[in-house]
Amino acid sequence: MLQEKIQQYTEEIARFTPQSSEDVEAFRLKFLVTKGVVRTLFDEFKSVSPDLKRELGKTLNEFKQAAENKYKTSQEQFASASQASKREAEDLTLPGEGFVFGSRHPLSLVRKEIVEIFKKLGFTVAEGPEIEDDWHNFTALNFPPEHPARDMQDTFFIKKQDGNDIALRTHTSSVQVRMMENGTPPFRAIMPGRVYRNEAISARAHCFFHQVEGLYVDEGVSFADLKQTLYHFVQELFGEDTNVRFRPSYFPFTEPSAEMDISCTICKGNGCAMCKGSGWVEILGCGMVDPNVLENCGIDSGKYSGFAFGMGIERITNLKYEIKDLRLFSENDVRFLGQFETELI
Ligand code: DAH
Question: Distance (Å, rounded) from C-alpha 105 to C-alpha 109?
């Protein structure tokens, strides 16, 4: 009979004194799950004769309530018990859990290395805006008005305004101009920063990348100073067995101009895929600051001379770490980014 069963189970519930959280779970499985006692009794209740339904329904609901209450209080009892024992087990003298640090971006690591080398030579670090006007990015640097670099193909223009367009800087050479305009020689600084060009994104080109510009202006600065400074830089960065060579080149803002190659860091000059078999890889452009540029910035080109150079941080990083796809630098894949940090912050 249903009534007797309810009676029996009610007593069982009243007697139930769990000793562990496993007992509580066993209680739940016996009484409260879909095929448990409570549901089974409700199913039986459906076939009880109507005259008994009223009385029995009430008892059955009370039984259900009792089962649920018992489960709830037992559960709370063990939850707080386990927390209390956990607290007792805590040893406050143990060292804390370590933080998981992120890692530095490979471009930041290489930029830092470059900056450190030049700092030791007495170069300061300067920065400038990424949104530039035509004067600082082109005109002051001796770019003739029809120079193809001004073309929409290469430059992201923000605003066209007759002779003084606003654009994303295409190189960090603009910071040279700002520095020379706002100070007096001597200048000895490097200028790291992000630059933008309107290029299709591929393994070998990107619409933004990073450069480090260098500028040294004083009385009597010569091409010999340029060569020795850059030779020292390369030996510090890539090792003493690295050779350099200078090839004549052209930039509007330097005269004479050169491109500097280093002996391939991967095959040591024997010829490989990175250097396309030549044994040499180009890493930077450089030259003696064109007197026109000095004059544009208010510096007496009769008294002062200087050298300048500019390199791509991505290119140097590719050589140092043999990275073959530029896109990896901006995809934020932690599997890639986590490989480079060698020191703890
Ligand atoms: N601005 C040049 C570029 O983006 C790099 C460069 C070449 C910078 C020669 C210089 C320099 O300062 O003297 O390709």
Answer: 6
